Amino acid sequence: TQTTTQATSQTAQSEALFARARAVTPGGVNSPVRAFKSVGGTPRFIREAHGAYLTDADGTRYIDYIGSWGPMILGHNHPAVREAVADALQFGTSFGAPGEREVELAELVTRLTGTDKVRFTSSGTEATMSALRLARGFTGRKLIVKFRGNYHGHADGLLVEAGSGLMTNLDGALGESAPSSAGVPEEYAALTLVSEYNDPAALDTLMAERGAEVAAVIFEPVVGNAGVLIPTPEFLAALHRVQGMGALLIADEVMTGFRLSLNGATGLLGLKPDLTCWGKIIGGGLPVGAYGGRGDVMDFVSPQGPVYQAGTLSGNPLAMAAGLATLRTLEADAGIYGRLESYTSQLADGLKTLAAGAGVAISVNQIGSMLTPFFQGAPHGSVRDYAQAARSDTQGFGRWFQGLLSRGIYWAPSQFESIFVSASHTGAELDATLEAARAAFADLNQ
Ligand code: PLP
């Protein structure tokens, strides 16, 4: 296989497709970060994806560090997943009635994550939205607490001080509950209280004041959507204290689930959430989300309980097949998480050395196969919250991103995102990436 990077100025096909797309789709894309708005340039329209590589409409190959924003932990078009989907396809694409694969995936997910019951949805957004409704229905309380710069999908009540593509819109003070999007009524946003990630005292104070009204505290156990932020043990302890106040603790593992370990960040960090949300890897690249947890809480979901939640395509047989093949492959390969960690920590070390050599200030956060180089001079590993992440030089990052892209490396097109390494990335891709990164850092001095 070809592993060398390719220089390209060939974007004619992507430009033509982008022009057509803009005429018929807002901004030309079906999800905002894909438009390259914060880094500039033409978004590449992708024709195909195999292993660690993407090929765009102009035929240029890239080493991919987005992995469809997380799902492709095995690499693109993995044979086990492709064959499972092809096999399922022979028997029909949607039944609107229960089938065996849903039972199998639910059994596998509950076993791997130590949860009692799980309900499948078709996206991570639906999972978090439904988990909050469930928490409100179970506790009879109205308020939820989230953390600034955490992103939990685009349900109205969660578009408050949200991260990811909204990171550039954040300007409210803590507790202020400013909507991050037009169309979210202030009255609705007021039901979402905002605290600061990795600030146990702020959470304790908020809960002391309003705790009796709080149905749930939802959080990213390792943040990917403000760039990578790693929680402190003190913050995790404060999160667990809310359970003593009758609020449910909801771990949003849409990004970290099955990525940081077979039991996600929950397993890695010793968390004890009441409910957990999944997405991305659980569907192996097809549209799946899920929420699950304590049986007494989950039994409040319809048709067993009074909290309504449904989906025409929920438990879709093709999507279940892709999820099953992905999780089974992960479980069967005992060394996989070690190899992902090894690749990513070598990438982190390489970036630190190369940036220092070029006199470019970066602060790298890395855990497992997630990594963000914040373009700022703070010591490595010390960026801990939204405010500090936001001090990054987004213009410098944007130029570095373009330097990588022009050398065949497809990095996340925003400073405030994690990259995702897959099991298809090998030493050859690592060497090629670091070679391109060296040149991209050098570009910044010109
Ligand atoms: N929660 C987290 C932590 C996410 O990272 C995302 C998406 O990136 C979501 C929820 C929403 O998932 P989806 O895009 O599948 O609706």
Architecture blueprint of SSEs:
Elements: H1 12-24, E1 46-50, E2 53-56, E3 61-64, H2 79-89, H3 100-113, E4 117-121, H4 124-139, E5 143-147, H5 186-189, E6 192-195, H6 200-210, E7 214-219, H7 233-241, E8 248-252, H8 264-269, E9 275-278, E10 289-293, H9 295-298, H10 317-332, H11 336-358, E11 363-367, E12 370-374, H12 386-389, H13 394-405, E13 409-410, E14 419-420, H14 427-443
Parallel strand pairs: 3-13, 5-6, 5-7, 7-8, 8-9
Antiparallel strand pairs: 1-2, 2-3, 4-10, 9-10, 11-12, 12-14
The structure holds pyridoxal-5'-phosphate.
Would you write up a description of this structure?
The structure is a single chain. It contains 14 helices and 14 strands. By secondary structure, it is an alpha/beta fold. The protein has 2 domains: 12-64 and 335-443, Aspartate Aminotransferase, domain 1, CATH 3.90.1150; 79-332, Type I PLP-dependent aspartate aminotransferase-like (Major domain) (Aspartate Aminotransferase, domain 2). The strands form 3 sheets. Strands 4-10-9-8-7-5-6 form a 7-stranded mixed sheet, sandwiched between helices. Strands 1-2-3-13 form a 4-stranded mixed sheet. It has a 3-stranded antiparallel sheet with strand order 11-12-14, with helices on one face. A hairpin with a 2-residue loop joins strand 11 (363-367) and strand 12 (370-374). It is globular and about 60 Å long. Pyridoxal-5'-phosphate binds next to helix 4. Keywords: Aminotransferase, Cytoplasm, Isomerase, Porphyrin biosynthesis, Pyridoxal phosphate, Transferase.
